[in-house]
Amino acid sequence: MKSVTFGDLAQQLIDVWISRGEIEDPLSLHHVIRERLATNMVLAVVDFPVGGRAACRVDVVRDYSIPTSYGEVPENLKTRLPMLPRGHLHPSIEKALATRRPSLVTETALHGDLQTNFEMLTLPRQVEKHRADWCLVFGVIHYLLKSAPLRKDLDDIDLAILQLLREGLQMRQIGLRVGLSPRTVEHRVERLKGLANARTLHDLVARSL
Fold first, then answer.
1. Is the distance from CB of 84 to CB of 122 less than 8 angstroms?
2. For residue 198, what pLDDT band results from cuts at 50, 70 and 90?
3. pTM surpassing 0.85?
4. Cβ neighbour number for residue 102 with a 10 Å cutoff
5. Of 42, 81, 96, 144, which residue has the fewest beta carbons closer than 10 angstroms?
6. Phi-psi region of 75 (alpha: psi -120 to 50; beta: other; left: phi over 0)
């Protein structure tokens, strides 16, 4: 059976948002997709009770649930999409609230040393009501990576090795391209792993992106 994509579900949400007009309760909007979400998708409602936007609350309907060795990720992801560090709303949410129109964004963001690539749809309440305002946030996390900025003074050989590793080449193939023995390439890769605090070759490639 063909899996349902983020684009499919986002379009379905937009169609419902348009066809039903003013929606009082976001539950009646997100129920059409919430049982069909993949494990890399996030669905949340941002409520704005009395007190305005500064007092907003994020209610997570479905959270990102792909297994990861990054222990801090599950808790952080509960507000990673709708909220920025220090409690600020994501600009696309601000845009949706200001225009009362859907807002769609694709972004790669850094949160500390964690790099997140995601798409996010924001659907605001169509008519602003200060005492019961809300917006629906639906997103998909394409990948999570630990990012470790490498030193800026890497030489041309190191830069070439990193690029060729990203392309999937083996040590022998890399050695032929850069004019070094496979053993010398291995030594350089081990040094790069140390600089990036990477545990494995795959970890080095991920952290170098």
1. no
2. confident
3. no
4. 19
5. 144
6. alpha
